[in-house]
Amino acid sequence: MPELPEVEVTRLGLVDRIEGAQVHAVRLGKPLRWPLGTDPQALAGARVGRLQRRGKYLWLPLGACGGLLLHLGMSGSLRFDAAEALPPAGPHDHFEMQTDRGLLRLTDPRRFGAVVWSSALDAAPAATLLARLGVEPLSPAFSASVLQQGLRGRRVPVKQALLAGDVVVGVGNIYCSEALFAAGIDPRQSAGTLDRAACERLVDTVRDVLQRALAAGGSTLRDFRDVHGMGGAFQLQAQVYGREGLPCRVCATPVRRIVQGQRATYFCPRCQRLPHGS
């Protein structure tokens, strides 16, 4: 599933190339998670503004025509190139926007992604979809005090609390496992029991892991490709994720795999010990 690094890699690959482009036409394929919400023909003639990201959403402003809120879902990726440089639309290509600078195409085999029109970022449906998102993990607003306050009173395991996205947004499954390992925190520990020192470590490791993932082009476990069609490589740096039974790179203890909230969790039972009473 594309997480914050993959979405930001996508934004960075698009932002300067598509800004200022004029929309000529929009084509829809099979239905995505939510309907577009407007007549595709109404977007023709719009001028593309500066592409923005909020969590795992991308906002593509279209001037007086409002804008498009995009989500890559579980298997989506965006390509942008001259139409003649791209292969013909295939069965998994469900949105295309032809501009005077090239063709923007969403490929999404599982169709959990979305392209939704909104009159503005602060108007429904965009505002509704973004309303409950937590702070951006790479922003100054993400601090130990914010994290500790957001987790206070939560009995769910800390990994599930982070994945919920209402305290801090976009820390996906692979990055959550890696950040918790680097912080020495057991993913099963009750979220509300993390003390200030643990929250400080976790803020630092979340930032570090996400920044390294961005530098590596994100992670490609199956479907993700950037706007140039290239896969990410962060998964090759993983300390625990996907390494069940292999020796921990720090202490050589076999890495464990458990399932939390239907998501695979990887951790080192020696480097990430549960505090007494947790």
In terms of topology, how is this protein built?
Elements lengths: L3 H15 L4 E6 L23 E3 L2 E5 L5 E5 L5 E5 L11 E7 L2 E6 L6 E5 L7 H5 L13 H8 L6 H6 L9 H11 L12 H20 L40 E5 L2 E5 L11
Provide a descriptive summary of the structure in words.
This protein has 278 residues and is of the alpha+beta class. Helices cover 23% and strands 19% of the residues. It contains six helices and ten strands. It has helices at residues 4-18, 126-130, 144-151, 158-163, 173-183, 196-215; strands at 23-28, 52-54, 57-61, 67-71, 77-81, 93-99, 102-107, 114-118, 256-260, 263-267. It has a four-stranded antiparallel sheet with strand order 1-6-7-5, with helices on one face. Strands 2-3-4-8 form a four-stranded antiparallel sheet, covered by helices on one side. Helix 1 (4-18) packs across helix 6, helix 3 (144-151) crosses helix 6 (196-215) and helix 5 packs across helix 6. The chain is elongated, with a radius of gyration of 20 Å. 42% of the residues are buried. The model has no long low-confidence stretch (mean pLDDT 94). GO terms for molecular function: class I DNA-(apurinic or apyrimidinic site) endonuclease activity; oxidized purine nucleobase lesion DNA N-glycosylase activity. Monomer. Its cofactor is Zn(2+).
Helix amount: 10-25%
Give the oligomeric state: single chain
Strand line-up in the sheet with most strands? 1-6-7-5
Spatial separation of the terminal alpha carbons: 30 Å
E-strand count? 10
Percent in strands: 15-25%
Q: Total helix count?
A: 6
Per the principal axes of the C-alpha atoms, what is the gross shape? elongated
Order of helices and strands: HEEEEEEEEHHHHHEE
Mean pLDDT: 94
Structural class: alpha+beta
Low-confidence stretches: none
Sketch the major β-sheet.
4 strands, antiparallel
